[in-house]
Amino acid sequence: MSRPKRLPGDARVADLAHANLMKEQRGRGPSPKTMSEAELQAHMRASLNVPNPPDKSHTLATELEGLIQLRITDVMPYDRNPRQHENERYSDIKESIRVASVLAPIVVTRRPGNSRHMVAAGGNTRLKAQQELWSETGDARFEYLLGIYRPWNSELSTMVAHMAENELRGGLSFWDRANGIWALKREIEAEAGETLSLRKLHDELAKRGLKVSIGLLSAFGFAVEQLADLGAATVRLTKNAAQELQPAFNQLELYLKLHRQEAEWPLLRAMVLKTQAHVLAEEAFTDDLIEGVRRINPLDPELLVAVLQHAVAAHLGQTAAEVRTMCDAIKRHPKASLEELRRHLDAPADALPPAAPAATTTRILPPSSAPVSTNTTAAASPPCDSHGVGTAHEAIRTGTGAVEPSTVTPAATVPSSSPHTAEAGPTPDDEPAEAAIITFVRACGVADLFRQCRALPHGYFMEVPPDGMFIDGFGDGEVEPLRHGGWWIAAMYSGQIDGALSHLMPKDSLWRQLQRMENGHDDTALQWHIETTLGNPPGLLELGQWLLRCPDHVIDAHERLVRELRRSVVQ
Question: Which of 22, 261, 477, 513 is deepest in the core (most CB within 10 A)?
Answer without folding.
Answer: 513
